[in-house]
Amino acid sequence: MPNRRPALNPLTTLAAAVAAAVMTTAASSWAVSLAVASAAAVLAVRAGVGARLAPAAAVILAPFWLSLLIMHGLFFPEGRTVLAQWGAARVTTEGLGFALDMGTRTAAYVMVFLLFSFTVRLPDLVAVMSARRVPPQFGYVLASTLTLAPAVTVRLARIRQAQESRGLVLRGGPLRRLAAARQQMVPLVLALIQDAGDRAQALDSRGFNASRERTSYREVPDTAAQRTFRAVALAAAAAAVGLRISGHWPEGLWMVGLWPDAPSPVALLAVALLARGVPA
Amino acid sequence: MSQQSQTLPAPGPASVRGRRLLELLGAVSIAATFIFLVLTQPADITNGLASGSTLVALGGFLLGAILLIIGVLPTLPTSTLVLIPVALVLNIALGQIMGSTGLPFYFDAIGTVLIAVLAGPAAGAATGALSSIVWSFINPTVLPFAAGAALIGFLAGLAARCGLFRRFYLAPVAGFVTGILAGVVSAPIAAFVFGGTAGAGTGAIVSAFRAMGDTLLAAITKQALISDPMDKAIVFAVVAMLVYALPRRTALQFAFVRRFNVLAGKTQETPGD
Fold first, then answer.
1. Which stretch of A72-76, A263-267, B157-161 has the lowest confidence by average pLDDT?
2. How far does CA A142 lie from the centroid of its chain?
3. Alpha helices in A50-173 (DSSP H)
4. Residue B219 domain flag
5. A251: closest CA among B47, B57, B54?
6. B97, B154 in Cβ contact below 8 A?
7. Would residue B201 count as lying in a domain?
8. B95 and B108 in contact (C-beta within 8 Å)?
9. pLDDT-derived band of residue A126, with 50, 70 and 90 as boundaries?
10. Whose CB among A17, A74, A171, B223 lies 3.0–4.6 Å from B205's, allowing a Cys bridge?
């Protein structure tokens, strides 16, 4: 893979993702959410993960949006401005607005975090975390799960083939299907627990549970500028939370038309930096 | 105890106390967040987007889940720890198998409950919280539900410890009760963070309650009380089936199973206790 510029430290992109998500939530305006979601989409395309990210986001967001639209578009008892009415169902401006707010906010949240997880280098993230005194067990669980998942899918397919060659039928009534599910689940669970036992012995014999400081083969680059950015991003996120919870959020700026809300340029900047972590 | 490595120093009492404190703080954080949300919701939801509540819900529940993980993880023996990735993958893979049966349930907690039954409440809670965090790398919307998943793992472990998995018919009952509590804890997250539920089916149930004039939190809580207890009762029954299908050698290698006689008819061999 050609590496045009050095990847950012995973903590920097994580801080950027968290700051962007927190500030978008605090800003709580559909325009800001939409801007952040679109920025994340553009950056994903530029980072070359757009083709993977789009279906992943669609699978999450499409049913969610549909559900919001039915839920709040048709039934919103707090709504005052009725646009249309069929029996108990009332389409109200307030309900549609609420669905739009929630839908775009969740879209921004999902896009920003998917951009982070699709661009981060997992070994770097694990190395950085164990250097930061995060329990090494956390890094193990994270890395192990994400590498185990495809292997289990393959294994499950093999178990199904083996059982089908012995006469397993996947069609039929609910009881037959349950029996078929059981015939696949039991061998899978048994094999996985057996493997886990083997791994435990291997890890134990290499001092995995030692509580001492450990050294790492992997050096993850970090710079003073990135450290400063992380501090600023997290401070801005904390300030946004403080303003929102204390009730001093500058809504007025929004009403006057000074686009956008004060902290949202920071959110956009955070998203921009998030994508720089990508080896393009 | 041949499992213990002999070269490693045992953790001192101070670090044990520190971890207990972390676990306690985590539980308090989750409980306090929930109480705050339930007390403040009527004023918030009519103001449209409850942004302050959203931030409190996200912050409090996530902080609690992370404290629980930091407190519990280092105390787990390696044999339990290596099961956690397995549990999470099972949550996904068994969900897919169940999905292929065409039954209207989601079963995303089978692995968590399995670990809780084999390794106890603390391991179950950590597995639930970790599952949500790791799974959020693929689907970020599960992240805010980490506290609910931790509660499911904790309650499943508690049920196993009290012997509810010794009788096959008691396991679904324990699952039903767990589902009620987990549903009530997860409902504020669905309401304040996402403003609704993800599925079209659950959305229809929420809509029905909303049409009767319920607040959003009340409607989602009622929907959770319909879906979750049924789902968890089935999950607990599936786990009971799986645990009894394990060879006794495998099940008895877990100290928790031996110590609390979790499984019926597997009590004879208790070496070393």
1. A263-267
2. 14
3. 50-74, 93-119, 122-131, 136-165
4. yes
5. B47
6. no
7. yes
8. yes
9. confident
10. B223
- Answer whether B51 sits within 8 Å of A25, measured CB to CB: yes
Q: Counting Cβ atoms within 10 Å, is residue B17 exposed (0-12), middle (13-18) or buried (19+)?
A: exposed
| Res. A22: pLDDT tops 80 | yes
> How many angstroms separate the CA of residue B190 from the nearest CA in chain A?
11
Between helix A136-165 and helix B83-100 the angle, nearest 10°, is 40
Question: Closest approach of chain A CAs to the CA of B188, in angstroms?
Answer: 14
Which element (helix H / strand E) includes A82?
Answer: strand A82-86
CA distance B133 to B147: 10
Domain housing B231: 13-259
Least confident of A13-17, A34-38, A211-215, B131-135: A211-215
Look at B81 and A141 and tell me if their CB atoms are within 8 Å.
Answer: yes
Question: Which pairs from A153-159 meet CB under 8 Å and 24+ separation?
Answer: A153/B93, A155/A188, A155/A191, A156/A184, A156/A188, A156/B93, A156/B96, A156/B97, A159/A184, A159/A187, A159/A188
Is residue B158 classed exposed, middle or buried when 0-12, 13-18 and 19+ CB atoms within 10 A define those classes? Answer: middle
Residue pair A115/A276 in contact (Cβ under 8 Å)? The answer is: no
Instruction: Spell out which residues of chain B touch residue A78, defining contact as CB-CB under 8 Å.
Output: 45-46
- The whole-angstrom separation of Cα B175 and Cα B109 is 11
Nearest to A197 among B79, B88, B207 (CB): B79
Domain count, chain B: 1
Report chain B residues whose CB lies below 8 A from the CB of A137: 73-74, 76, 81
pLDDT at B141: 85
Examine residue B164 and state whether it is found in any structural domain, yes or no. yes
Q: Which of A52-61, A126-135, A170-179, B183-192 has the lowest mean pLDDT?
A: A170-179
- Asked whether the beta carbons of B30 and B60 are under 8 A apart, the reply is yes
* Res. A64: pLDDT tops 80: yes
A210 contact residues in B (CB cutoff 8 A): 8
- B132 lies in a domain? yes
- Per-residue pLDDT, A112: 94
Taking the CA of residue B84 and the nearest CA in chain A, the distance in Å comes to: 7
Nearest to B211 among A75, A142, A180 (CB): A75
Q: What is the ipTM of this complex?
A: 0.80
Q: What is the rounded average pLDDT for all residues in chain A?
A: 81
Identify whether the C-beta of residue A95 lies closer than 8 Å to the C-beta of residue A72. yes
